[in-house]
Amino acid sequence: MLKIKPKRITYHGWQIQVLMQDGKFCFRCYPPNLADFCNDGSSHISFKGALAAACHFVNREVAILALLRAVDEWLEDGRINEDEYWNLTNFN
């Protein structure tokens, strides 16, 4: 039997792959210039649900990276102190 490699979708420069495992869909997101994938460990009942969750995941990661760049610059320029830095970069 021919095995078909799942298609990857590009979103904000990331590659998203939706896979079916044990009757549910999950996603893998590949950041630009990195070979390993990221995900949130969730599973979904539909392809569309998994794709929407993957896009939400990428949006969050892109926003975090942008915020980290800005906050790093603020710390280096002395516009914020270390306590403010850690408060701004606590994403729990």
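Above is the first protein from milestone M3; the second protein from the same milestone is given next.
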Amino acid sequence: MKKILAFAFFLLSVASFATAQTQPATPKGGEALPVKTPQVNAEPMVREATDKLVQKYTLNADQAKQMYIIQTRKQRNLQAIEVLKTSNPALYQGKLKNVQQGTLASIRRILRTKEQMKLYQKTQTEVRIRQAEKRKQMLLQNAAKSEIENAVIAVYAE
């Protein structure tokens, strides 16, 4: 009996999920909400960032393709959160940090050789040192917490 009830509950949840996916989100007036994402041609930035990282880590062809995908995703995510920069700076900060961490994790996953991993670790160690120095400097200047976080997040390297 419990299995039948569990199965029925499962079917109901799948059915409600499926209908929720097919129905567009609409406000009370019945009009669909427009999605405002700034469209910027990020291709040159993606190519440039990919080329720099291919050279830095001496990536092979397969790794270079994966790096291009990573950089494309990063630019797409940055464009998606750009509107939050002025409308909700705290949320923007958090999402920017997540984009950076996700990008670094993806890069780390494609690195294969010991030399690539050593260079990655060295780069991240240097970033952490620069972030700590920046935080200390800003604390000595009695900067606001949000300003400190913005400055620390800006210290980033792949």
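Note on the second protein: The longest helix spans residues 114-140.
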